Amino acid sequence: MSALPPFEHTPIDGILPTVNQIRASFLSHKTRPLEFRITQLRKLYWGLNDNQDLIVEACKKDLGKSQFETYLTETSWCMNDIVFMTKNLARFAKDEPAPDIAFTNKFFGPRIRKDPYGTVLIIGAYNFPIQLSLGPMIGAIAAGCTAVLKPSENAPNASAVLQKVVAESLDPSCYAIIQGAIPETTALLDQKWDKIFYTGSVNVGTIIAKKAAETLTPVTLELGGKNPAIITKHADPKLAARRLLWAKTLNAGQVCVSQNFTLIDREIVPSFLKEMKNALEEFYPQGPKKSPDYGRIVNLRQFQRLKKMVDESNGKIVLGGSMDERDLFIEPTVIQVENMDDSLIKEESFGPLLPILPVTDLDEAIKIANEVHDTPLGVYSFGNKQEMEKVLSQTRSGGASLNDGFFHASIPTLAFGGVGSSGQGAYRGKASFDVFTHCRSVTTTPAWIEGMLDVRYPPYTAKKQKKFVGMSALKPNFDREGRTLGWWTWMQGLIGLKSVVAVVGKS
Known about the structure:
Layout: H1 15-27, H2 34-50, H3 52-63, H4 67-93, E1 96-97, E2 111-116, E3 119-123, H5 131-143, E4 146-150, H6 156-169, E5 175-177, H7 182-189, E6 195-199, H8 202-213, E7 219-222, E8 228-231, H9 237-249, E9 261-265, H10 269-283, H11 300-311, E10 316-319, E11 323-324, E12 329-330, E13 333-336, H12 343-346, E14 353-359, H13 362-371, E15 378-382, H14 385-394, E16 399-402, E17 416-417, E18 423-424, E19 426-427, H15 430-434, E20 437-442, H16 462-472, H17 487-506
Parallel strand pairs: 3-4, 3-6, 4-5, 6-7, 8-9, 8-15, 9-14, 13-14, 15-16
Antiparallel strand pairs: 1-2, 2-20, 7-18, 10-13, 11-12, 17-19
Helix pairs in contact: 2-4, 2-5, 2-6, 3-4, 3-6, 4-5, 9-10, 16-17
C-alpha cells in the first residue's frame, strides 16, 4: 500500500491565482459540453476506486472508522453517485417545456434551459470527509460548473487523499483543492463566487451566509440540528432501541442527522432501557472500546466539549458513560434527563450521547419538540401508524424517518437538506445536479406573430384592451366565498377558449 500523502496548507498567496484560473476556465466554456462532464465524472470514479485502501487508512486515522463503515458511507456512496449521474446526466440537462402554458403562449416556444451557475466554492465537513466533499463536487461537475473544494482540516489524512484523487483524476484548470483552516477559508470567502455550498455547523454557516450576502452570492447550507426522536407507548421498544442505537453509534455519533434527544412515554422507559442494554451488548460483544467497528471522536477539542456536556448534565447515566481522553473514546451513553434545559439537550451533541426525556403522552412530546426554536434536520417517530402520521403533520424538519433513525438520509437518490436553522437547499440524486444549475426561462418570438402582438404597442385603446382580455383572462372556478363552482364554470372556460381562438384568427 502507498503511504498516506502529507496534509499541507495551501499558501495564501496561491489562492487568488488558483481561483482566477478556475473562473477563467468556466468563462472559456470548457465545462459546457456533456461529454466533458461525463468524462470527468468517470475519471473521478476510477480515482476513488484506485485509492480505496488509502481512503480506508485515512478515515481510520482521522475518525477510527472501520473498513466496512468507510466503504458504506464514503467510497461506495460517492462511486454510486457518479454512476447514477453519468447514466442520467443527458436527461437532467435537457431543456424542459414550460408547464401549464396558455394556448396563445405556446407559439413562443417557452422552455426551461439548464445552465451551470458558474464557478462554485464547496466547503466540506470532517465527519464524512470524502462523502461530504465529493458529494457536492459530483453535482457541480455534472451541472457544468468549475469548482474549488476546501475539505475539512479536522480530517487531515482524508483531506490529503482527496487532494491526491482530485489532482490525478480531474482537469486541474477546472477543479482545484485548497487546504487549510480559518485563514485559508477566509481568503476563499473574500473571492466572488457564483455559488457557495457549505456543510458544517450552524455557527459557521451563519458566518458564511453573511459573507455571501455582501456579494449576493447564493448559498446552500447543510447544517446540523437538535433532532428529536419520539417514542410512544405503542412503539416496539426493541425495534426503537436497536435502530436509535445504530443511529448514534455510526461514526461514534458524529452524524448531523442522528437524534440529539429522545422524548419517550414514561410507560415504556423501563423496557426501552432494557432493550438498549441488550442491543449494545449485541452490537459490541467485547465492548465498544475493543470493537473494530466503533469509531473515535475526531480530536481532543471535540472530546472535551462532549465530556463537558456530560459533566454539566443534571441527568442520571443509565447506560455507558466511560471515556478515555488519550484514545478519544466515548462509550455510547444513555442519560435520563429531567427537562429541556439540560446541557445534553440545549446544544447539538454530535457524539455518542443519548439523552432521554420521559413524557406523559404524544401531545406533550410534540409540544416539547416544537418548543425547541431550532428547526431540526430530522425527526424520528416510533409508534403506531396514526401516531407517526400525527408527528409528521404537527412538526417541522428537513426530513423524517418513521420507525427508524435517519434512514431517509441514507438513500442516495432522495433529496437531502435542512429547513430553517438546519440549512437551506438540498442535494443528492437529481438534486445534486439541480443545486448547481440555474433554470433559465427562454422564449423565441417568431416574426410571423407580429400581428397578434400589436396589443402591446402604444397607443393603447379600448379595442386593444378588449383584445388582450380575450387573449389572456382566465375564468375563476370559485365564487366570492372561496367555494368551488359547478359544471357551468367549465362551460365558461370553453367559451373563453373559443374567443381566444377567434381573436388569434382575426390577427
